[in-house]
Write a structure and sequence with these properties.
Elements (H helix, E strand, L loop, with lengths): L7 E4 L3 H13 L6 E4 L2 H9 L12 E4 L8 H9 L9 E5 L4 H9 L4 E4 L4 H22 L1
Parallel strand pairs: 1-2, 1-3, 3-4, 4-5
Helix pairs in contact: 1-5, 2-3
Length: 143
């Protein structure tokens, strides 16, 4: 598995949060490819490809927001868990939603974790450190 490139798919509609994730990963020296989708529908297009665009490489990890336009995070989870080509993907929810029903439903779709986005930048970085540790575990299991 040496030299296998590990990919991250970030499904997030907030440009500031996208910037914070990218900045935190750079600070952690994680220079792996990051693919960004602004909602669940765009993420499905990236994962499945379209008539004119091939799919992205299978991501090692998906970071998923819940509250997004067109197709929200829970609808996206429902879709990938019912797709034989995508059901195995590892997903960590990173969202502002602390609604109990969202948390319960996300875990029913077998997410690896449900993390609330912190407001303060230094706390956001701490969350990304925890996600980075999980990602490293994913790397070891795909080797």
């Amino acid at each position: 598995m040496a030299n296998k490139e590990l990919h991250l798919l970030l499904v997030e509609d907030d440009d500031i949060d996208i910037l914070n994730v990218k900045r935190s990963l750079r600070k952690l020296n994680l220079l792996n490819p990051i693919h960004v989708a602004h909602d669940g529908l765009e993420a499905l297009y990236l994962l499945r490809g379209t008539e004119t665009t091939p799919p992205i490489p299978s991501p090692t990890l998906i970071l998923l927001d819940i509250n997004m336009p067109r197709m929200n995070g829970l609808e996206f989870l429902r879709e990938i868990r019912s797709d034989q080509q995508l059901h195995h993907l590892s997903v960590v929810v990173l969202t502002t939603s602390d609604e109990e029903r969202d948390i319960v439903e996300a875990y029913q779709f077998h997410v690896a974790g449900y993390i609330l986005k912190p407001v303060l930048p230094e706390k956001f970085f701490e969350v990304m450190v925890a996600i980075e540790k999980y990602w490293k575990l994913c790397e070891k299991t795909t080797s």
